[in-house]
Amino acid sequence: MGDIPNDEMITILEHRCGCPLSHAKLLVKVLNSLQVQRSKTNVFQGKNGLITPRDLLRWAERHATTKEELAFEGYALLAERLRNDDEKEIVKSVLEEVLKTKIDVDKVYYDEKSEPMSQLSLVREQVSERSERALRKTSLEYSR
Predict the structure, then answer these.
(1) How far apart are CA 72 and CA 60, in angstroms?
(2) Most buried residue, 20, 103, 116, 138, by most Cβ within 10 Å?
(3) Average pLDDT over residues 130-137
C-alpha cells in the first residue's frame, strides 16, 4: 500500500477523528517533518520508523484543544516510546518548531498541579487509608 496523500490524510483526521482542520494540517506537517528528519539523520530505520498514519489517528483522537496540548500529546505518543534521549529530543524539537510552542516535560509531569502528580497524590491517599484500616483491624484482632 502506498503513502496516503497529505490532503487525504487531513480529510481522514478531520472526519474520522473529529480533529479540527487546523490541527489536522499541523499533524500532517509534523509527520512530513519527522520523515524528512529521519531521512537526514538515518536515526529511524524503515519507511515509517518513527511515525505512521496510525499514530496520527491515535494522536488526533486525543482531542487536544490548544497547540500546547497538541504538542504534549504528540510528545507523549511519539517520543515517550523511544529509548534514546537524542531521538526524543529530535521529536521534541520538530513538535516545537511545527506547532510553534515549547514543551516543558518536567512541568507537565512533575509540577504539583499536573495531572500525573494529582493522580499520584490520590493514589497515595488511598493507600494510606487502606493501610490505616488494616492496622486498626489488626490492632482490634490482637486486643481480643
Answers:
(1) 12
(2) 103
(3) 82
In the chain, where are the structural domains located? 1-103, 104-144
The predicted-structure confidence for 105-119, as pLDDT tens digits, reads as follows 887 777 777 777 778
What does the block give as the cell for 14?
478531520
Cβ-in-10-Å burial (0-12, 13-18, 19+) of 66 comes to exposed
Taking residue 140's Cβ as centre, other Cβ atoms within 10 Å add up to 9
Non-local CB neighbours of 128 within 8 Å, separated by 6+ positions: none
The pLDDT score that the predictor gives to residue 1 is 42
SS3 105: helix
* Cα–Cα distance measured from residue 12 to residue 125, given in angstroms and rounded to the nearest whole number: 43
pTM: 0.72
* Spatial CB neighbours of 115, under 8 Å, sequence gap ≥ 6: none
Alpha helices in the chain (DSSP H): 6-17, 21-41, 53-60, 67-74, 85-99, 105-110, 115-143
